[in-house]
Amino acid sequence: MPTIVANSIPINYQLDGDTSKPVLVLSHSLGTDLSMWDAVLPLLLPHVQVLRYDTRGHGQSSVTSEPYSIDLLGADVIALLDALRLQEVCFCGLSMGGLIGQWLAIYHPERIKSLILSNTAAKIGTLENWSQRIDAVHRDGLAPLWPGVEERWFTKSFSDKTTIDQVKTVFTSSSAEGYANACAAVRDADFREQLSEIALPTLVIAGTYDPATPLADGAFLADTIPGALLVELPTAHLASVEAPEAFVSAVLRLLTQPEATRYEAGMVVRRAVLGNAHVDRAEAGKTNFDSDFQQYITESAWGSIWTRPGLTQRERSLITIAILAALGHEEELAMHIRATRNTGATPDDIKEVLMHTAVYAGVPAANTAIRIAKQVFSAENP
């Protein structure tokens, strides 16, 4: 992969795709490198040119000795764009990369066309925790940190051991000095008072099971950045690695329609919950007779209610199942039980909801719902 001198250091980067298409910059998490984006790259390339790079202190980019700041890491991005003669780009940053994205949007909005902030926060963690981590890395290196990092980065249900091992290899072989210096940048960054200044089309992606930057952090970003859209994915911290298809689906809807209408916002969530295959079938089956109705449910149910930050997608999923069971809407009930594979609700969750439904909506309704749930589970796990 090529390197280029930017901001007085060699930066490793990879620029892929059709040069006639807009450029999307991907900025990785602390302790990873540009390979973190391998799963989403082929899904993005038909639509955009993709610029990935190794953040200072990571991968094959230079490791400098001073503690870093987000100002410094953001200036590296501006220098990289200048060196590659890229005037305006779309920017997607995950975790530390999301902090860099916030800095760019605040201090260099003229260079950013649209912004994706994934699994990040305006302020990540506490001063004490970051300082303790820096001390531990200086003392013991990175390998002892991996078990805790793996728990934060991947849900227990993510079973792709090959991918986890690849991420582990990158993490444990990273420069301890570069990692510790980047920890200082994350520790000291705080954009809570400046988020309202961001005036760019912005998508916030948050993981339902992300303990590092919880859903509440994503909701705060979306609530505070004017016009920002929040999409919740059933992942832990590395959403682009755990759910690349859903991640790219959300990203492309911002890039292809920067000022997302209620319909586009609803379609993003509808696809995330029900799955692309189901929505594609529904869209393909539309006629003049029901096209207005399809637009109505996408805008109202998915664009106005499911996009609200007050409940998680798992919670909304369980509430929906209870209501559909009580009302006896069997076809919709089956559809939403199938959708729990995307919302994170478990069979045990559904069982408890239907037990609760039996008390308040009647045993016959719950009995029918239990039969339907058993049929769905049996079909999925024959």
TrEMBL record:
Residue ranges of every copy of the AB hydrolase-1 domain listed in the record: 22-244
Q: Which residues form the Carboxymuconolactone decarboxylase-like domain?
A: 292-374
Q: Which GO terms describe its molecular function?
A: 3-oxoadipate enol-lactonase activity; peroxiredoxin activity
Instruction: Report which superkingdom the organism of origin falls in.
Output: Bacteria
Single GO BP term: beta-ketoadipate pathway
InterPro entries the record matches: 4CMD/NDH-1_regulator (IPR052512), AB_hydrolase_1 (IPR000073), AB_hydrolase_fold (IPR029058), AhpD-like (IPR029032), CMD-like (IPR003779), Decarb_PcaC (IPR012788), PcaD/CatD (IPR026968)
The protein's name in its UniProt record: AraC family transcriptional regulator
